Protein backbone atom coordinates (compact mmCIF):
# COMPACT_ATOMS: atom_id res chain seq x y z
CA UNK A 1 0.00 0.00 0.00
CA UNK A 2 1.28 3.44 -0.86
CA UNK A 3 1.65 5.81 2.08
CA UNK A 4 -0.13 8.53 0.09
CA UNK A 5 -3.39 6.71 0.65
CA UNK A 6 -3.25 7.09 4.40
CA UNK A 7 -6.08 9.36 5.60
CA UNK A 8 -3.71 11.70 7.41
CA UNK A 9 -2.06 12.56 4.10
CA UNK A 10 -5.40 12.86 2.35
CA UNK A 11 -6.43 15.43 4.98
CA UNK A 12 -3.35 17.60 4.48
CA UNK A 13 -3.79 20.87 2.65
CA UNK A 14 -1.19 22.85 0.74
CA UNK A 15 -2.96 26.10 1.57
CA UNK A 16 -4.91 26.06 4.84
CA UNK A 17 -4.75 29.82 5.51
CA UNK A 18 -8.52 30.15 5.70
CA UNK A 19 -8.89 27.33 8.22
CA UNK A 20 -6.16 28.77 10.40
CA UNK A 21 -7.75 32.22 10.22
CA UNK A 22 -11.12 30.68 11.09
CA UNK A 23 -9.56 29.08 14.16
CA UNK A 24 -8.31 32.52 15.20
CA UNK A 25 -4.66 31.63 14.56
CA UNK A 26 -2.10 34.02 13.18
CA UNK A 27 -1.58 33.81 9.40
CA UNK A 28 1.26 35.08 7.22
CA UNK A 29 -1.28 36.94 5.08
CA UNK A 30 -5.05 37.41 5.02
CA UNK A 31 -6.87 34.64 3.13
CA UNK A 32 -9.44 35.68 0.51
CA UNK A 33 -12.43 34.21 -1.32
CA UNK A 34 -15.67 35.68 -2.69
CA UNK A 35 -19.24 34.83 -1.89
CA UNK A 36 -20.88 33.65 -5.14
CA UNK A 37 -17.51 33.15 -6.81
CA UNK A 38 -18.71 29.95 -8.49
CA UNK A 39 -20.96 30.93 -11.36
CA UNK A 40 -22.23 34.45 -11.83
CA UNK A 41 -19.13 36.09 -13.32
CA UNK A 42 -16.95 33.62 -15.20
CA UNK A 43 -17.40 33.02 -18.96
CA UNK A 44 -16.03 29.52 -18.28
CA UNK A 45 -19.07 28.96 -16.03
CA UNK A 46 -21.50 30.24 -18.68
CA UNK A 47 -19.98 27.80 -21.18
CA UNK A 48 -20.70 24.81 -18.92
CA UNK A 49 -24.11 26.19 -17.91
CA UNK A 50 -25.19 26.83 -21.53
CA UNK A 51 -24.41 23.26 -22.52
CA UNK A 52 -27.24 22.12 -20.21
CA UNK A 53 -31.00 22.59 -19.91
CA UNK A 54 -30.60 24.98 -16.98
CA UNK A 55 -29.25 25.81 -13.56
CA UNK A 56 -30.85 22.85 -11.80
CA UNK A 57 -29.31 20.32 -14.16
CA UNK A 58 -25.90 21.77 -13.32
CA UNK A 59 -26.58 21.63 -9.58
CA UNK A 60 -27.71 18.01 -9.92
CA UNK A 61 -24.81 16.82 -12.11
CA UNK A 62 -21.94 16.23 -9.62
CA UNK A 63 -19.08 16.06 -12.13
CA UNK A 64 -20.02 19.42 -13.69
CA UNK A 65 -20.87 21.01 -10.33
CA UNK A 66 -17.35 20.03 -9.23
CA UNK A 67 -15.88 21.54 -12.39
CA UNK A 68 -17.48 24.96 -11.84
CA UNK A 69 -16.60 24.82 -8.14
CA UNK A 70 -12.91 24.54 -9.02
CA UNK A 71 -12.91 27.19 -11.80
CA UNK A 72 -12.45 30.16 -9.41
CA UNK A 73 -9.52 28.41 -7.72
CA UNK A 74 -7.76 27.98 -11.07
CA UNK A 75 -8.82 31.25 -12.68
CA UNK A 76 -9.09 33.74 -9.82
CA UNK A 77 -6.58 32.37 -7.32
CA UNK A 78 -8.92 32.31 -4.29
CA UNK A 79 -7.87 30.60 -1.05
CA UNK A 80 -10.98 28.37 -0.85
CA UNK A 81 -13.54 26.69 -3.09
CA UNK A 82 -17.27 26.85 -2.28
CA UNK A 83 -19.36 23.97 -3.51
CA UNK A 84 -21.60 24.87 -6.46
CA UNK A 85 -25.17 24.29 -5.33
CA UNK A 86 -28.00 26.44 -3.97
CA UNK A 87 -29.62 27.09 -0.62
CA UNK A 88 -32.96 26.07 -2.19
CA UNK A 89 -32.15 22.36 -2.36
CA UNK A 90 -33.37 22.12 1.26
CA UNK A 91 -36.97 23.30 0.66
CA UNK A 92 -37.01 21.03 -2.37
CA UNK A 93 -35.95 18.01 -0.28
CA UNK A 94 -38.70 18.96 2.20
CA UNK A 95 -41.31 18.75 -0.56
CA UNK A 96 -41.42 22.20 -2.21
CA UNK A 97 -39.92 22.09 -5.68
CA UNK A 98 -38.24 25.25 -6.99
CA UNK A 99 -37.69 26.48 -10.53
CA UNK A 100 -34.85 28.80 -11.55
CA UNK A 101 -36.28 31.33 -13.97
CA UNK A 102 -33.68 32.77 -16.34
CA UNK A 103 -32.84 36.42 -15.49
CA UNK A 104 -35.49 36.46 -12.72
CA UNK A 105 -34.35 34.05 -10.06
CA UNK A 106 -36.01 31.31 -8.03
CA UNK A 107 -39.72 30.57 -8.13
CA UNK A 108 -41.72 28.07 -6.05
CA UNK A 109 -44.92 27.04 -7.87
CA UNK A 110 -46.39 25.96 -4.50
CA UNK A 111 -45.83 27.93 -1.29
CA UNK A 112 -46.69 27.45 2.38
CA UNK A 113 -49.83 29.32 3.44
CA UNK A 114 -51.48 27.13 6.06
CA UNK A 115 -50.97 24.34 8.60
CA UNK A 116 -52.30 21.98 5.97
CA UNK A 117 -49.44 22.96 3.63
CA UNK A 118 -46.88 22.27 6.38
CA UNK A 119 -48.40 18.84 7.09
CA UNK A 120 -47.60 17.88 3.52
CA UNK A 121 -43.90 18.68 4.03
CA UNK A 122 -41.31 16.47 5.70
CA UNK A 123 -38.01 16.93 7.45
CA UNK A 124 -35.57 16.41 4.58
CA UNK A 125 -34.03 12.99 4.35
CA UNK A 126 -30.33 13.73 3.84
CA UNK A 127 -30.24 10.78 1.43
CA UNK A 128 -32.34 12.84 -1.03
CA UNK A 129 -29.43 15.26 -1.46
CA UNK A 130 -26.89 12.65 -2.53
CA UNK A 131 -25.95 14.68 -5.61
CA UNK A 132 -24.53 17.44 -3.38
CA UNK A 133 -22.35 15.02 -1.40
CA UNK A 134 -21.17 13.39 -4.62
CA UNK A 135 -20.20 16.84 -5.96
CA UNK A 136 -18.30 17.50 -2.71
CA UNK A 137 -16.48 14.15 -2.94
CA UNK A 138 -15.45 14.74 -6.56
CA UNK A 139 -14.39 18.33 -5.82
CA UNK A 140 -12.36 17.28 -2.80
CA UNK A 141 -10.57 14.67 -4.88
CA UNK A 142 -9.92 17.02 -7.81
CA UNK A 143 -8.77 19.88 -5.59
CA UNK A 144 -6.15 17.44 -4.38
CA UNK A 145 -5.45 19.44 -1.22
CA UNK A 146 -4.79 22.76 -2.98
CA UNK A 147 -7.30 24.78 -0.91
CA UNK A 148 -10.07 24.01 1.60
CA UNK A 149 -13.63 23.30 0.44
CA UNK A 150 -16.54 25.28 1.89
CA UNK A 151 -19.99 23.69 2.26
CA UNK A 152 -23.07 25.80 2.92
CA UNK A 153 -26.76 26.09 3.65
CA UNK A 154 -29.30 28.88 3.99
CA UNK A 155 -30.27 29.99 7.49
CA UNK A 156 -33.69 28.69 8.53
CA UNK A 157 -35.23 32.20 8.41
CA UNK A 158 -34.03 32.80 4.82
CA UNK A 159 -35.28 29.37 3.68
CA UNK A 160 -38.60 29.97 5.50
CA UNK A 161 -38.95 33.28 3.62
CA UNK A 162 -38.61 31.55 0.24
CA UNK A 163 -41.08 28.83 1.24
CA UNK A 164 -43.71 31.40 2.26
CA UNK A 165 -43.09 34.04 -0.43
CA UNK A 166 -42.40 31.66 -3.31
CA UNK A 167 -39.44 33.76 -4.48
CA UNK A 168 -37.66 37.01 -3.79
CA UNK A 169 -39.66 39.94 -2.43
CA UNK A 170 -39.19 43.64 -1.72
CA UNK A 171 -40.79 43.53 1.72
CA UNK A 172 -41.05 39.83 2.68
CA UNK A 173 -44.39 40.85 4.18
CA UNK A 174 -45.98 37.40 3.84
CA UNK A 175 -43.13 35.74 5.72
CA UNK A 176 -42.99 38.50 8.34
CA UNK A 177 -46.78 38.49 8.72
CA UNK A 178 -46.76 34.86 9.84
CA UNK A 179 -44.49 35.75 12.77
CA UNK A 180 -47.36 37.87 14.14
CA UNK A 181 -50.41 35.97 12.91
CA UNK A 182 -49.32 32.42 13.74
CA UNK A 183 -45.97 32.29 15.56
CA UNK A 184 -46.49 28.66 16.59
CA UNK A 185 -46.89 27.61 12.97
CA UNK A 186 -43.82 29.65 12.02
CA UNK A 187 -41.80 27.98 14.78
CA UNK A 188 -42.95 24.55 13.66
CA UNK A 189 -41.75 25.18 10.11
CA UNK A 190 -38.49 26.79 11.31
CA UNK A 191 -37.81 23.68 13.43
CA UNK A 192 -38.40 21.40 10.45
CA UNK A 193 -35.98 23.46 8.34
CA UNK A 194 -33.42 23.47 11.17
CA UNK A 195 -33.54 19.69 11.58
CA UNK A 196 -33.24 19.24 7.81
CA UNK A 197 -30.27 21.59 7.68
CA UNK A 198 -28.37 19.94 10.54
CA UNK A 199 -28.58 16.50 8.92
CA UNK A 200 -27.65 18.00 5.54
CA UNK A 201 -24.59 19.89 6.83
CA UNK A 202 -23.35 16.86 8.76
CA UNK A 203 -23.44 14.88 5.51
CA UNK A 204 -21.57 17.69 3.73
CA UNK A 205 -18.79 17.40 6.31
CA UNK A 206 -18.66 13.62 5.86
CA UNK A 207 -18.38 14.17 2.09
CA UNK A 208 -15.38 16.49 2.48
CA UNK A 209 -16.44 20.04 3.45
CA UNK A 210 -13.61 21.57 5.51
CA UNK A 211 -15.72 24.45 6.76
CA UNK A 212 -19.34 25.60 6.48
CA UNK A 213 -21.13 28.88 5.90
CA UNK A 214 -24.72 29.70 6.84
CA UNK A 215 -26.23 32.37 4.59
CA UNK A 216 -28.94 34.47 6.24
CA UNK A 217 -29.54 36.65 3.21
CA UNK A 218 -32.82 38.13 4.44
CA UNK A 219 -31.81 38.71 8.06
CA UNK A 220 -32.06 42.46 7.56
CA UNK A 221 -35.83 42.54 7.00
CA UNK A 222 -36.63 41.53 10.60
CA UNK A 223 -36.97 43.76 13.63
CA UNK A 224 -34.18 42.96 16.12
CA UNK A 225 -36.40 41.15 18.63
CA UNK A 226 -37.85 38.94 15.90
CA UNK A 227 -34.37 38.32 14.56
CA UNK A 228 -33.28 36.80 17.89
CA UNK A 229 -36.44 34.77 18.28
CA UNK A 230 -37.06 33.57 14.73
CA UNK A 231 -33.61 33.45 13.19
CA UNK A 232 -30.61 33.52 15.50
CA UNK A 233 -32.15 30.92 17.80
CA UNK A 234 -32.21 28.38 14.95
CA UNK A 235 -28.78 29.33 13.61
CA UNK A 236 -27.49 28.77 17.14
CA UNK A 237 -29.08 25.29 17.22
CA UNK A 238 -27.30 24.41 13.98
CA UNK A 239 -23.96 25.68 15.32
CA UNK A 240 -24.43 23.67 18.53
CA UNK A 241 -25.13 20.50 16.54
CA UNK A 242 -22.11 20.75 14.24
CA UNK A 243 -18.85 20.53 16.09
CA UNK A 244 -16.73 18.87 13.39
CA UNK A 245 -15.64 21.93 11.35
CA UNK A 246 -15.57 25.73 11.77
CA UNK A 247 -18.77 27.55 10.83
CA UNK A 248 -19.23 31.06 9.44
CA UNK A 249 -22.51 32.88 10.00
CA UNK A 250 -23.34 35.64 7.52
CA UNK A 251 -26.46 37.59 8.45
CA UNK A 252 -26.89 40.22 5.75
CA UNK A 253 -28.23 43.49 7.11
CA UNK A 254 -28.47 42.42 10.77
CA UNK A 255 -25.83 44.80 12.15
CA UNK A 256 -27.72 45.08 15.44
CA UNK A 257 -27.28 41.34 16.05
CA UNK A 258 -23.46 41.38 16.09
CA UNK A 259 -23.17 41.53 19.91
CA UNK A 260 -25.51 38.53 20.23
CA UNK A 261 -23.36 36.56 17.80
CA UNK A 262 -20.64 36.47 20.45
CA UNK A 263 -22.68 33.76 22.22
CA UNK A 264 -23.17 31.53 19.18
CA UNK A 265 -21.01 28.48 18.54
CA UNK A 266 -19.68 29.70 15.23
CA UNK A 267 -16.01 30.53 14.62
CA UNK A 268 -16.45 33.32 12.06
CA UNK A 269 -18.97 36.11 11.61
CA UNK A 270 -19.46 37.56 8.12
CA UNK A 271 -19.89 41.34 7.77
CA UNK A 272 -21.71 43.13 4.98
CA UNK A 273 -20.48 46.52 3.77
CA UNK A 274 -22.89 48.43 6.01
CA UNK A 275 -21.24 46.97 9.08
CA UNK A 276 -18.29 48.67 10.71
CA UNK A 277 -15.30 46.31 11.18
CA UNK A 278 -14.02 48.43 14.09
CA UNK A 279 -17.30 48.02 15.95
CA UNK A 280 -17.45 44.31 15.07
CA UNK A 281 -13.93 43.82 16.47
CA UNK A 282 -15.02 45.48 19.69
CA UNK A 283 -18.16 43.38 20.22
CA UNK A 284 -16.74 40.13 18.82
CA UNK A 285 -13.21 39.92 20.24
CA UNK A 286 -13.16 36.12 20.09
CA UNK A 287 -14.55 35.59 16.59
CA UNK A 288 -12.80 35.68 13.25
CA UNK A 289 -14.40 38.29 10.99
CA UNK A 290 -15.10 37.91 7.28
CA UNK A 291 -15.76 40.60 4.69
CA UNK A 292 -16.54 43.29 3.80
CA UNK A 293 -15.66 45.30 0.70
CA UNK A 294 -18.66 46.85 -1.05
CA UNK A 295 -19.18 44.65 -4.17
CA UNK A 296 -19.57 47.91 -6.13
CA UNK A 297 -15.94 48.82 -5.40
CA UNK A 298 -15.08 46.26 -8.10
CA UNK A 299 -16.68 48.57 -10.71
CA UNK A 300 -13.92 51.08 -9.93
CA UNK A 301 -10.52 51.40 -11.62
CA UNK A 302 -7.61 49.27 -10.42
CA UNK A 303 -6.35 52.30 -8.47
CA UNK A 304 -9.70 52.58 -6.70
CA UNK A 305 -9.82 48.85 -5.98
CA UNK A 306 -6.31 48.97 -4.53
CA UNK A 307 -7.09 51.95 -2.30
CA UNK A 308 -10.42 50.48 -1.11
CA UNK A 309 -8.85 47.08 -0.41
CA UNK A 310 -6.09 48.74 1.58
CA UNK A 311 -8.64 50.67 3.65
CA UNK A 312 -10.73 47.56 4.18
CA UNK A 313 -7.73 45.50 5.35
CA UNK A 314 -6.64 48.29 7.69
CA UNK A 315 -10.10 48.47 9.26
CA UNK A 316 -9.73 44.85 10.43
CA UNK A 317 -6.27 45.59 11.88
CA UNK A 318 -4.64 42.57 13.48
CA UNK A 319 -7.97 40.88 14.21
CA UNK A 320 -8.29 37.36 12.68
CA UNK A 321 -9.75 38.11 9.25
CA UNK A 322 -10.92 36.37 6.08
CA UNK A 323 -11.13 38.91 3.25
CA UNK A 324 -14.30 38.85 1.14
CA UNK A 325 -16.91 41.19 -0.28
CA UNK A 326 -19.80 42.35 1.86
CA UNK A 327 -22.18 40.17 -0.20
CA UNK A 328 -21.99 38.01 -3.30
CA UNK A 329 -20.05 39.35 -6.28
CA UNK A 330 -22.46 41.05 -8.71
CA UNK A 331 -23.08 39.16 -11.96
CA UNK A 332 -21.79 41.91 -14.31
CA UNK A 333 -18.46 42.37 -12.52
CA UNK A 334 -15.39 42.08 -14.78
CA UNK A 335 -13.50 38.90 -13.73
CA UNK A 336 -10.23 40.82 -14.19
CA UNK A 337 -11.31 43.25 -11.48
CA UNK A 338 -12.09 40.32 -9.20
CA UNK A 339 -8.65 38.91 -9.92
CA UNK A 340 -7.08 42.28 -9.16
CA UNK A 341 -8.92 42.48 -5.82
CA UNK A 342 -7.63 39.03 -4.89
CA UNK A 343 -4.07 39.97 -5.89
CA UNK A 344 -4.30 43.16 -3.84
CA UNK A 345 -5.41 41.28 -0.71
CA UNK A 346 -2.47 38.94 -1.17
CA UNK A 347 -0.03 41.80 -1.74
CA UNK A 348 -1.27 44.29 0.83
CA UNK A 349 -2.30 42.15 3.77
CA UNK A 350 0.34 42.29 6.45
CA UNK A 351 -0.70 39.04 8.12
CA UNK A 352 -2.19 38.98 11.58
C1 LIG B 1 -30.35 33.94 -1.48
C2 LIG B 1 -29.48 32.85 -2.06
C3 LIG B 1 -29.82 31.97 -3.15
N1 LIG B 1 -28.75 31.12 -3.34
C4 LIG B 1 -27.75 31.42 -2.45
C5 LIG B 1 -28.20 32.47 -1.62
C6 LIG B 1 -27.42 33.04 -0.44
C7 LIG B 1 -26.33 33.95 -0.85
C8 LIG B 1 -26.74 35.34 -1.23
O1 LIG B 1 -27.41 36.02 -0.45
O2 LIG B 1 -26.33 35.76 -2.33
C9 LIG B 1 -26.45 30.74 -2.28
C10 LIG B 1 -25.73 30.26 -3.47
N2 LIG B 1 -26.17 30.12 -4.77
C11 LIG B 1 -25.17 29.64 -5.56
C12 LIG B 1 -24.06 29.36 -4.73
C13 LIG B 1 -22.83 28.64 -5.25
C14 LIG B 1 -21.55 28.87 -4.66
C15 LIG B 1 -21.01 30.29 -4.74
O3 LIG B 1 -20.59 30.71 -5.81
O4 LIG B 1 -20.99 30.98 -3.71
C16 LIG B 1 -24.38 29.79 -3.42
C17 LIG B 1 -23.56 29.80 -2.15
C18 LIG B 1 -25.21 29.38 -7.01
C19 LIG B 1 -26.20 30.11 -7.83
N3 LIG B 1 -27.53 30.32 -7.57
C20 LIG B 1 -28.10 30.98 -8.60
C21 LIG B 1 -27.14 31.21 -9.62
C22 LIG B 1 -27.39 31.89 -10.98
C23 LIG B 1 -28.25 31.02 -11.83
C24 LIG B 1 -27.74 30.66 -13.21
O5 LIG B 1 -26.58 30.38 -13.44
O6 LIG B 1 -28.62 30.62 -14.05
C25 LIG B 1 -25.94 30.68 -9.14
C26 LIG B 1 -24.61 30.62 -9.85
C27 LIG B 1 -29.53 31.34 -8.68
C28 LIG B 1 -30.14 31.94 -7.47
N4 LIG B 1 -30.25 31.34 -6.23
C29 LIG B 1 -30.85 32.21 -5.35
C30 LIG B 1 -31.19 33.40 -6.08
C31 LIG B 1 -31.86 34.63 -5.49
C32 LIG B 1 -30.77 33.22 -7.42
C33 LIG B 1 -30.99 34.13 -8.61
C34 LIG B 1 -29.90 34.90 -9.11
C35 LIG B 1 -28.57 34.92 -8.37
O7 LIG B 1 -28.57 35.23 -7.17
O8 LIG B 1 -27.52 34.63 -8.98
C36 LIG B 1 -31.09 31.93 -3.92
Automatic annotation (TrEMBL):
Which GO MF term does the entry hold, naming one?
Answer: uroporphyrinogen decarboxylase activity
Which Enzyme Commission number(s) are listed?
4.1.1.37
What is the enzyme's class at the highest EC level? lyase
Arranged from A to Z, the UniProt key words for this protein are: Cytoplasm, Decarboxylase, Lyase, Porphyrin biosynthesis
* GO cellular component: a single term: cytosol
Which positions are annotated as binding substrate? 36-40, 86, 162, 217, 327
Q: Where in the cell is it found?
A: Cytoplasm
Catalysis performed (reactions): uroporphyrinogen III + 4 H(+) = coproporphyrinogen III + 4 CO2
- Which pathway, metabolic or otherwise, does it act in? Porphyrin-containing compound metabolism; protoporphyrin-IX biosynthesis; coproporphyrinogen-III from 5-aminolevulinate: step 4/4
Protein task = Catalyzes the decarboxylation of four acetate groups of uroporphyrinogen-III to yield coproporphyrinogen-III.
Q: Which PANTHER family match?
A: METHYLTETRAHYDROFOLATE:HOMOCYSTEINE METHYLTRANSFERASE RELATED, UROPORPHYRINOGEN DECARBOXYLASE
The protein in question is named Uroporphyrinogen decarboxylase
- Origin organism of this chain? Ekhidna lutea
Amino acid sequence: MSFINLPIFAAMLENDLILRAARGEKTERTPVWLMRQAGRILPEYRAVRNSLSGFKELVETPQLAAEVTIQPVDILGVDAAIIFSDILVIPEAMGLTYEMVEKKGPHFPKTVESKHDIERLKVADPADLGYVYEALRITKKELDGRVPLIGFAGAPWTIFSYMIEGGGSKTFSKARRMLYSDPAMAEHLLNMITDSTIAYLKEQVKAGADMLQIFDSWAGVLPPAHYSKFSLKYISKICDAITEVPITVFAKGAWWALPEMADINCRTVGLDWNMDPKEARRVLPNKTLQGNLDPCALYGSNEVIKAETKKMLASFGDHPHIANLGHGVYPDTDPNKVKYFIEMVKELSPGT
